[in-house]
Design brief:
Length: 761
């Protein structure tokens, strides 16, 4: 029988309610035994289950499968695979008696220096949102909860618990919120975890606008909001702001503060009740799933290997891969013996087993003879003798495989990276080995981009193997030998140098504040806008076969925004082996009132094709695929006009372009005010209508500028005068133009405003 939450709530004392709103231990909620309310057990996340044996401890987790981290997951671009991964995670939660896994993390990769980027999906909100939604749906399909984190604008580790992200409304809506929005609307995570940081001066845990107005009201989030561990500052303010559950506990003084605030009248008890209702709903939902059934560790290890192989990105290949006839293989680098497969911090999993890359390679390399050299010491030390030994071993070999891992000191939760570089020893090693052995493959283990400009020309191939999870060693062997045809595509741009990156001059800020000065232009949106070369573009990834795109088509060349449209293309595997292609659909707006990125990813599909096979790939584009957030209207708007639909294999490899015409169906209110410029008036349909009867009173140049409607379109000296007027507030134009009006300019302005806003004049 389902528990009656309303009557349980009615039977609870204020003290019990306040206690339920704060954890009982580091990982459990507070039970109310008297009323049959069980405790709920939570565990990190996001790429494995970090279940503490003792709920009061933060160390000593039980063995669980360590899957590849989110950078690798996202590079699969395979929503079904991520769903399957979610289901496997849930099975492990069930076995380990965990009710909610603390993931996925879906913050944007604002700068490649972000210390936790390895735990996040992408620089693109659409891709990240699809990944997060699939992950959540997979986990929750088995009756286990998730925690979508860290809400929101949690994009750096520097001053992680106090920095204030200064980010404008449009940027929040278009870049930092949509992945959360998609995940909430599509998948309804049981919990959402607030961020440590402040957003425009207000802590994530006290941010009423984010937690209540947007998350709970606008997006209709049904679950509970949990704090990040230690993110609550003022418990009463946090409750009022929509933060339901504080973790970790126990924190008796917090409970007392809530009770006291209700007694003093500072806190309305109905606010506590609302939090309790949300918590009880999830606690009882969790209790419905019987726990304890063991999971199939070897099946999950195999799944981890599949995800790793699908997520690895073949960045460069002059034809050396897949390996075929190499008989003597020089295996170089510590990462060949000790897999670097996860990052430091709260996501650190105690793996059930770990593949040793060297051994896995030996298993698939048949009778090839493998030798090994360490190549580089642990950490950041430098040792020339290891480089010399490696080069000597590489010289006579047929092929050298360089396994390079970024040391943990360079990448972890808790602090940001300070550069994009491999260690000095690793770079020197690549140069030394490639100078004696051109047939060298570099295999990288890192969670975020590294700079390559200094050495990329040396090796014959480069495989980005990410923080690849416990089975990644085998996955590398699978890809090197073509047992798996690589199909991973970058979910983030690899820049040439740090100074090229969008947030370079504003990251990580300081003195408590970081300015998101690049606005909506992060990742490829920035590089595209600046026509800037990059090392490897967003969406890039090579295969052992080739694909042709033909017969691109749209369901309608002219369409209404609310109807959206469907894009289709035929994809043919034109090579000799089976493979998978990720078809990416970008949208480019020809003209808009506010600046927009040159193109944005709005759809994708991964398709598997036998050699010679053709399949049709279709992608739907809805209203939001064409809309942008207008801070004046405070809503998503579309504008009449032409858009290009670009279908491609990466952001820089567009194979087909189709032009379509959108009809806007919005009936927008006027946002004109006393400061609005003549241009604002002309561009606002209601404003233009109100002004129409008076336009003939303006001087000829101004009339010309109004007709041309844009400064760029008008030419010559007279046009210059008109353009000058376009940028002035209408009230000033009325003076400067010496327009003979029936009433004073002030009264005229009031009259026009009233008309534009539909008020009586
Ligand atoms: C991290 C969260 C994590 C929590 C519990 C925090 O420090 O930011 O991602 O889920 O700890 O370990």
């Amino acid at each position: 029988m389902k528990p009656d939450i309303q009557s349980i709530l009615a039977g609870m004392t204020l003290e019990e309610k306040a206690a339920l709103c704060t954890g009982a231990s580091a990982w459990t909620t507070t039970p109310v035994e008297r009323l049959g309310v069980p405790e709920m057990f939570v565990a990190d996340g996001p790429h494995g289950v970090r279940r503490m044996a003792n709920p009061h401890h933060s160390k000593g987790s039980l063995p669980a499968t360590c899957f590849p981290t989110a950078s690798c997951m996202a590079s699969t671009w395979d929503v079904d695979l991520i769903y399957a991964l979610g289901q496997a995670l849930a099975e492990e939660c069930i076995a380990l008696k965990v009710d909610v896994v603390l993931g996925p993390g879906t913050n944007m990769k604002r700068s490649p220096l972000g210390g936790r980027n390895f735990e996040y999906y992408s620089e693109d909100p659409y891709l990240a949102g699809q990944m997060a939604a699939s992950f959540i749906t997979g986990v929750q399909s088995k009756g286990v909860g998730t925690s979508l984190k860290h809400f929101a604008a949690n994009n750096q580790e520097t001053q992680r618990m106090l920095i204030s992200a200064r980010v404008d409304e449009r940027t929040l809506r278009e870049i930092y919120l949509p992945a959360f929005e998609t995940a909430v609307k599509k998948a309804q995570p049981w919990t959402v975890m607030c961020a440590y940081n402040k957003i425009n001066g207000t802590y994530g845990s006290e941010n009423h606008r984010l937690l209540v107005d947007i998350l709970k009201n606008e997006w209709a989030f049904q679950g509970l909001v949990v704090s990040d561990w230690g993110a609550v500052h003022n418990r009463v303010t946090a409750l009022k702001s929509g933060l339901d559950l504080e973790m970790p506990g126990p924190r008796d003084r917090r409970v007392q503060a809530v009770v006291g605030a209700v007694h003093s009248g500072d806190l309305d008890e109905s606010i506590v009740d609302e939090a309790v209702r949300r918590i009880l709903r999830i606690v009882f939902m969790a209790a419905e799933t019987p726990k304890g059934a063991p999971f199939d560790a070897s099946a999950h290890h195999a799944l981890a290997r599949r995800v790793a192989a699908e997520g690895m990105v073949l960045l460069k290949n002059n034809g050396i891969l897949p390996l075929q006839s190499a008989k003597r293989i020089a295996v170089i680098g510590r990462a060949a013996q000790e897999a670097h497969f996860q990052g430091g911090g709260s996501s650190h999993i105690n793996p059930t087993q770990v593949d040793r890359p060297f051994e896995e390679l030996q298993k698939v390399a048949g009778d090839a003879e493998l030798s090994y050299a360490e190549g580089y010491p642990e950490g950041m030390a430098f040792d020339q003798s290891l480089i010399d030994a490696a080069a000597n071993m590489a010289r006579p070999a047929d092929v050298a495989l360089l396994y390079l891992a970024l040391p943990e000191a360079k990448e972890s939760e808790g602090y940001d990276r300070t550069d994009l570089d491999l260690t000095g020893q690793e770079v020197a090693l690549i140069k030394a080995v490639t100078s004696v052995q051109p047939e060298t493959v570099v295999i990288l283990n890192n969670g975020a981009p590294v700079a390559m400009a200094d050495w990329i020309d040396g090796p014959a191939a480069v495989l980005e193997a990410w923080m690849m999870g416990q089975a990644g060693g085998g996955a590398i062997a699978d890809v090197l030998y073509g047992r798996v045809n690589p199909s991973g595509k970058l979910a983030e741009t690899f820049p040439i140098r740090l100074a090229d990156t969008p947030a370079y001059i504003n990251f990580p800020g300081g003195a408590g504040e970081v300015l998101y000065g690049e606005g909506i232009f992060i990742g490829y949106r920035y590089y595209d806008a600046r026509a800037m070369p990059v090392q490897f573009p967003f969406g890039h990834g090579l295969s052992y076969t080739t694909f042709a795109y033909t017969n691109p088509r749209v369901s309608a060349t002219s369409f209404r925004d609310v109807d959206g449209l469907t894009v289709a293309v035929d994809v043919t595997n034109t090579g000799k082996v089976a493979g998978k292609e990720v078809v990416q659909v970008y949208v480019h707006d020809h003209k808009s009132r506010l600046a927009r990125p040159p193109q944005e990813l709005k759809g994708f599909a991964k398709v598997e094709l036998e050699a010679g096979q053709t399949r049709t790939v279709a992608v739907s584009l809805d209203f939001r695929a064409f809309a942008y957030f207008h801070p004046g209207y405070r809503q998503w708007i579309t504008e009449d006009g032409e858009f290009d639909i670009r279908i491609g294999a990466s952001a820089s490899d567009i194979r087909c372009t189709l032009t379509v015409t959108l009809q806007c169906t919005l009936d927008l209110p006027s946002i004109l005010n006393r400061d609005s410029t003549l241009r604002d008036w002309v561009e606002d349909p209601r404003g233009r209508r109100a002004m129409e009867p008076f336009l003939h009173l303006f001087t000829a140049p101004t009339q010309a500028a109004i007709a041309a409607h844009s400064a760029a379109a008008a030419k010559g000296d007279t046009a210059m005068m008109g353009n000058f007027m376009l940028e002035l507030p209408l009230r000033e134009v009325l003076y400067f133009e010496g327009v003979k009006l029936p009433v004073s300019p002030e009264d005229m302005l009031e009259r026009l405003l009233a008309q534009a806003h539909g008020r009586p004049t």
